[in-house]
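Record pair follows.
FIRST:
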Amino acid sequence: MNELSKRKVVEHNSLITSIAKMDKTPLKMFELAVSCINTEEPPKDNAVYLSKEELFRFLR
């Protein structure tokens, strides 16, 4: 996993508005998933896969 601080995060304005209503834990999980997207080459199936290990490390 790349260092989280070095990942580029891009969000659309409507997305920012909708995630403002999320609870803290789902919001953190969403931020991690978004940070895994390579904006230069987005996944063809629009799916982002996270391992349990990445998720637990991020939430510590």
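SECOND:
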Amino acid sequence: MGEAHQLQLSIMVHHQDANGANSRSIRNTSVLPRGKSFNWWLRMTLYTCLVLSGQSVATLLGRLYFDKGGHSNWLQALMNLAGFPILLPYYCIPALGKRNNPTTNSVQSERPPSTLTLASVYVSLGLLVAFGCFLYSVGLSYLPVSTYSLICASQLAFNALFSFFLNSQKFTPYIFNALFLLTISSVLLVFQGDSDSGAAGVTTKGKYVIGFLCTIAASASYGLTLSLTQLAFRKVIRKETFTAVMDMIVYQSLIASCAIFIGLFASGEWKGLKKEMGEFKSGKVSYIMNLTWSAIVWQLFAIGGVGLIFEASSLFSNVVSALGLPVVPVLAVIFFHDKMDRIKIVAMVLAIWGFVSYLYQHYLDDRKAKTAEYENADGEVSTILPP
């Protein structure tokens, strides 16, 4: 990078002597691409740790809730979203609230979208998030946490599929390979439901199939939500500032929490919450702490995911999330004594293989983009250099 700066300096000095106007133009334009700073890599590491740890701990707490006597799918779904008020201090700190530096892919809009348009986007995505969270809760209540987390790996396949239609995502052999492996990994797990244990003892074949289908549908909903969110940023919001991303997650969580709260009361499950807390095997304090920390760690996961979207892309955020899925089955064997039979091991290996294939395609795309960027920069330098 030192040689690059010397080259830029020599170019500016030459043009300053020849033409003052040209020197000002060159001084204000970065000719060569700048590398990522140490602080950027540090932030990426922090956000990645938040995603991996938040997702793993939240999933285990959700399984613990059902294992210790919890029964409410609506309440567990609410805990996925109800912690969003911890993000509100962001708006109370002037230095952060005014932060509107665009991301790399930001497209500045000359005319901001109307309030009605933004409200429609937030409400639609919020309801979709609520639907997905409830399905995830049903799946977690009927499936062992190791099986549940492996099935969730299919979210990458759904994300790629929806991105193809909504975000013009190009399919490559590596992406096709990932889709195939992740699909086979999920399908394998439906054949070993008889040996798994659920929240209340042995899970019947019928409940296992319901849990399997709900988790698959929730993964599809999650993939669709990511693609629609990316589409909303590009077509409606048309800017990707950190404040815009924070607005998206807070308003989505608010709408989704309200929808699930209505479902909690409409289903009548709220009537049994007091009895459920009293009969919780670990006690009332443990019941409250479980729900509280579930809400907090899910928001830590959300902060990490939003941070990765801000620093990189929504696709990379989903890839990191998928990376944490194979971690949960290992923790489930340690803490919940889940069985790790042959089919589940094969499914986990296929899921990891599919993830690596998907990640390698992301690496190739990033490498190709950097190569093109440097070639364009070299072309600009050659046109600026005097004959």
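COMMENT: Confidence is low (pLDDT under 50) at residues 1-35, 103-109, 197-202.
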